[in-house]
Amino acid sequence: MIAQWMQAFVAVAESDSFSSAARRLGVGQSTISKQIAALEAHLAIRLFQRTTRSITLTNEGVAYFEAAKRALAAIDEARAAASPKAEAQGMLRITLPLTLAESRIIPIIADFLAAHPRIEIDLSVSDHPRNLVADNIDVAIRVGRMVDSQLIGRKIGKAKRVLVASPDYLAHAGRPNVPGDLKNHNCLQYSLLSTGTRWQFTDGQVVQVNGNFSADSPNALRAAALSGIGIAANALWLFEDDLLRGGLELVLPNFEPASMPIHAVFPSGQFVAARTRTFIDFVANALATDPLCAPD
Prior knowledge:
By secondary structure, the protein is an alpha/beta fold. It has nine helices and 14 strands. It has helices spanning about 1-15, 20-25, 30-45, 60-80, 100-115, 165-175, 220-225, 235-245, 275-285, and strands at about 50, 55, 90-95, 120-125, 140-145, 150-160, 160-165, 190, 200, 205-210, 215, 230-235, 250, 260-265. Helix 5 links the parallel strand 3 and strand 4.
């Protein structure tokens, strides 16, 4: 019974609404209200501050929220261990970069939801890393090296990368023949990439490049390359349509830039719910068959 009360509490806390929580759990709003009241009475604390227009967690509610999530995850883990064929269910909060979401992961999510109809997805799309604990996110999919020691990561793929430029840029600036020639070109920078202006290649070459344009968005980088500003380096999935249409051309096709790992990451020291593990496995299996993302 307490587990049901906790589930109702977490649903209300995550949705900021009794009615939304009721829809999510498939019960009446009055049931949710009674469960929250019963939980508050059992704990002898007030979990929510209610007004006519809003509902927010009290300080005690904030503290209890994280504990309740861990407890529910542990119950979910125990259920999965006892019944390995039990269907994964519940809300799954995910964050991932925009271009990866649009070109690869959202189609995979569509297949995942069809296979697991009792799971709901709340997707946050951002090229800037989110705080998984503070933002109540179950799993992030990130491209690049792991730098946060507070997170656990599982490599689920890699991003095949290419160099591109517009035909107009190559016509007036010339075409580089070897990586070292990039020093004489305007190289566009993706400012969120930890390697910065050091462009690495799979054969071990590293070139220190420079340029007059940088952006924190891959789509802005793509637009700059299409506009003829300079040479861009990023995941092939970002440029594949433009390469097919001729808006961009491959640069140094015989020298492949080093690929970037794709990780599924989640906070350390927390239970990983069955739905989270199921999702990570599903995405990893899908990326394994994708020539642009398959891991080594």
